[in-house]
Write a structure and sequence with these properties.
Elements: H1 8-16, E1 23-35, E2 41-53, E3 65-73, E4 76-85, E5 90-92, E6 101-102, E7 108-120, E8 126-132, E9 150-156, H2 158-162, E10 169-170, E11 177-179, E12 184-187, E13 190-191, E14 197-203, E15 256-257, E16 263-266, E17 272-284, E18 287-301, E19 304-305, E20 315-318, E21 321-327, E22 331-333, E23 347-352, E24 358-361, E25 367-369, E26 374-382, E27 390-399, E28 402-403, E29 406-409, E30 418-422, E31 425-426, E32 430-436, E33 442-443, E34 449-450, E35 456-466, E36 471-480, E37 489-490, E38 494-497, E39 500-503, E40 505-506, E41 516-520, E42 526-527, E43 533-536, E44 540-549, E45 555-567, E46 574-577, E47 581-582, E48 587-592, E49 599-604, E50 609-610, E51 616-618, E52 623-632, E53 638-648, E54 652-654, E55 658-659, E56 673-675, E57 680-687, E58 693-697, E59 718-727, E60 733-742
Parallel strand pairs: 11-18, 21-27, 38-45, 47-53, 55-60
Antiparallel strand pairs: 1-2, 1-18, 2-7, 3-4, 3-8, 5-7, 6-19, 8-9, 10-13, 12-16, 14-17, 15-16, 17-18, 20-21, 22-25, 23-24, 23-26, 26-27, 28-31, 29-30, 30-34, 32-33, 32-35, 35-36, 37-40, 39-43, 41-42, 41-44, 44-45, 46-48, 48-51, 49-50, 49-52, 52-53, 54-56, 57-58, 57-59, 59-60
Length: 744
């Protein structure tokens, strides 16, 4: 039979895909369709399934796929057919669900190829095959997987042709993902429509093609796509130790296949990708008719559990093995922290009570009563008797309780440390003490002493722990309000002048606002605040006394004799004349009127100073000025007084009543005269008898020359009205109105 011709596009396609590493499995089978159209021939439908990793970035499935048929004649192989078979249906291989496990995301595509071929009935076998490189580089159990292709083949034996046989067909797709450390339960069985006996076994995957590429080598036996396919015998792949034909995957128990049912079981314990070959041998009346060989890449991965058993525990002993301690109670509550939500349908708790009986519960959070102190073993199971289950082992120590207790003593009237005495007890040996004294202070000794800084009520907490890690705590409220051991007042002494306003800062300790205070200031006055301020208004020497009483009645008092000395002070006073001071008369006579002064110090607004008793001073500028007088008593005490002197700015302004603008340089301009220092907003306007403004000036030095706006034609003789406005130096508006007679 002649070889079918390929179109040029397929050669180009094959060249572009030389680096493709995507093959993960395949299988070939056949079905008898009856007698052929040629004499002494039979018609068969051959089916090829190829599996591809669609997440690996490799080439797509071949379209067409190269199929080659060889006839075995006297030990030699003669090619009887070679041709391209178009790609049929592509389907995604679904992930087989596993109880309680969510596998990682993977993608596998299955491509189906079918073709019908007539073959002469022969006493020799026909070998139908498809060869392609390459496999995934990440395969764990064979050597150089990225450089080795696969051969998917089936032998049509003379016995099968005589029996008009159809080969077995596998019932289901292989699993894409197997969860590590989780049992495999996969039915790899096949169906045979002729009812022949089927025997299952692991068998070696076959090599086919290689990594050679380029126009000259890509289609050779070691090329990426052998065209035509190379003849038998086909070479087995080489396993990497410790893997082998009998153990293609690591497992405990080892992964195995039941020869009678095709059921694969075991528990994998090695993550990776493993090529596995499964052969189903077909027998009729004890005679072998065919062997269907399917190989597939099993992906063993860590899967995310959909449920996870967990409880609140004190210690993790091992994987899913926890320890709890119960102190002082035989009724132990177990808190369930399991995860899984709606996937959890039941809870089961079981504990051995060490007396031949069990304690059980089906509550989510169980309460178990143990008969006595001691150690007990048990477990908690999620979804008991279901494939979707998980559990934890539990050890529980029931210990006697530890009891925290203490007492304390201190001198209630003398400020000193509080002595604490521990009275805690436990059947276990007490090992740790932790004291918290209520104001931030702590200690870890058994019998501490503690000195408080401030009086008050403090919650003192003692926490104890014994050798069984049992703890207990207790809190007592302590009232610590002793009287201070010393009365300390600041200032320690005082010499001052009348009036003496003195703050007595009470630095005694411990005291606070809950204490009572009795002050006597030696001038007949008293006070009851903690730290008073007192005004001494008369000269003299004063003794101060204070008594402090704590809230529980402890008293302490002290007297400070001749502590405060108040000296006489002068009284500073003065007057001045004249009382109204203007810029025309700026000289002022000051008269001292102080009492008991022996020295005088004058300051005239920081412009000048003098020590004369009755000085005179002339201010050089208008405005308000502060004059200070400081006088000194013969005791050295001083007094100061001050007054504000307002020097009023004076102005004068006069307007003429006539003028003669005849250019004789005499009285040619109508202009006011006077002292105008400090004025602002000056304005002079001239109006004729018809109410028309004929002149305006904002400068007091610019007057009217008798012409309209000083530039127009001369105004006729007559009487005109003038209006002058300005603001004086104190901001007061002034206005002058009058008549100007123009004479020519």
């Amino acid at each position: 039979m002649k070889r079918l011709l390929y179109l040029s596009f397929f050669l180009l396609f094959a060249t572009l895909q030389l680096h493709a590493k995507h093959i993960i499995g395949g299988v070939m089978s056949y079905e008898y369709l009856g007698a052929g159209t040629q004499p002494n021939s039979q018609k068969y439908k051959f089916t090829l399934a190829v599996y591809r990793d669609c997440y690996g970035g490799g080439a797509p499935l071949d379209d067409p796929a190269e199929i080659t048929i060889y006839e075995e004649i006297n030990g030699a192989y003669v090619m009887v057919y070679s041709g391209g078979i178009g790609l049929g249906q592509i389907t995604k291989v679904p992930v087989v669900p596993m109880p309680c496990m969510t596998p990682p995301s993977v993608c596998v595509e299955k491509g189906d190829y079918t073709f019908i071929q007539e073959l002469p009935i022969s006493g020799n076998s026909y070998h139908i095959s498809y060869q392609r490189c390459c496999r995934n580089e990440t395969i764990s159990n064979i050597q150089t997987p990225g450089d080795v292709g696969a051969t998917y083949t089936i032998e049509l034996t003379p016995a099968a042709m005589m029996a008009k046989n159809s080969s077995p067909q596998f019932n289901s797709l292989p699993p894409i993902v197997i969860c590590n450390e989780f049992p495999i339960a996969y039915d790899h069985s096949a169906m045979d429509k002729d009812g022949d006996q089927l025997i299952y076994s692991f068998c070696s995957p076959l090599k086919g093609g290689g990594k050679l590429q380029g126009q000259a080598t890509a289609n050779t036996c070691n090329g990426v796509i052998p065209i035509p396919g190379c003849p038998p015998p086909f070479e087995d792949v080489k396993f990497v130790a410790p893997y082998s034909l009998a153990m293609p995957m690591a497992g405990d128990p080892v992964i195995s296949i039941n020869p009678g049912t095709g059921f694969i079981d075991g528990i994998p314990h090695q993550i990776g990708q493993f090529v596995v070959g499964v052969c189903v041998s077909e027998y009729r009346n004890g005679q072998l008719l065919s062997i269907v060989r399917r190989e597939f890449q099993f992906n063993v991965a860590d899967c995310q559990p959909d449920i996870f058993a967990d409880i609140k525990k004190d210690t993790v002993i091992g994987f899913k093995n926890f320890l709890l301690n119960s102190c002082g109670t035989n009724d132990v509550q177990f808190i369930n922290l399991s995860q899984g939500g709606s996937n959890i349908s039941s809870y089961y708790w079981e504990f051995n009570l060490n007396n031949g009986s069990l304690a059980t519960s089906t509550a989510k959070d169980a309460i178990i009563t143990f008969p006595d102190t001691g150690r007990y073993e048990g477990k908690m199971v999620l979804n008991r008797n279901s494939p979707c289950n998980d559990s934890v082992d539990i050890a529980i120590n029931v210990f006697p309780s530890a009891t925290a207790d203490f007492s304390y003593v201190y001198d209630t009237c003398i400020a000193g440390p509080v002595q604490f005495t521990d009275h805690s007890h436990s059947e276990g040996v007490l090992q740790d003490w932790k004291w918290q004294f209520g104001e931030g202070g702590t200690d870890k000794v058994k019998h501490p002493a503690y000195l408080y800084k401030e009086p008050g009520q403090y919650p003192v907490t003692l926490t104890v722990r014994d050798a069984n890690n049992c703890t207990d705590d207790t809190t007592n409220l302590i009232t610590w309000q002793p009287a201070p051991s010393d009365v300390i007042i600041a200032p320690s002494t005082f010499n001052g002048c009348i009036p003496a306003n003195i703050f007595f800062d009470n630095l005694s300790s411990p005291i606070d606002s809950t204490y009572t205070f009795e002050w006597e200031f030696g001038d007949g006055t008293v006070d009851s605040v903690m730290s008073p301020t007192h005004l001494f208004e008369h000269e003299g020497v004063y003794s101060i006394s204070v008594k402090i009483t704590s809230p529980i009645g402890c008293e302490v008092e002290d007297v400070f004799p001749n502590w405060i000395r108040v000296l006489p002070s002068p009284k500073a006073m003065f007057s001045y004349s004249p009382e109204e001071v203007t810029s025309f008369q700026p000289t002022i006579q000051f008269t001292d009127e102080s009492i008991d002064a022996v020295r005088w110090f004058w300051n005239f607004d920081s412009l000048a100073t003098t020590q004369d008793r009755h000085p005179a001073y002339a201010f050089q500028d208008t405005g308000k000025h502060v004059v200070y007088l400081r006088v000194v008593h013969e005791s050295g005490c001083v007094d100061t007084t001050s007054k504000i002197i307002d020097v009023i700015p004076e102005i004068t302004f006069f307007m003429p009543n006539a003028f003669t603008p005849n250019e004789d340089t005499k009285n040619d301009i109508f202009l006011g005269k006077g002292i105008l220092d400090g004025i602002s907003d000056f304005e002079m306007t001239i109006w004729n008898r018809w109410g028309e403004q004929i002149f305006e000036s904002n400068d007091p030095n610019v007057g009217w020359n008798g012409s309209k706006n000083n530039v127009g034609r001369p105004s006729p003789p007559g009487v005109y009205v003038y209006v002058v406005k300005f603001v004086n130096p104190r901001g007061i508006k002034r206005q002058l109105r009058g008549f100007a007679t123009l004479i020519r």
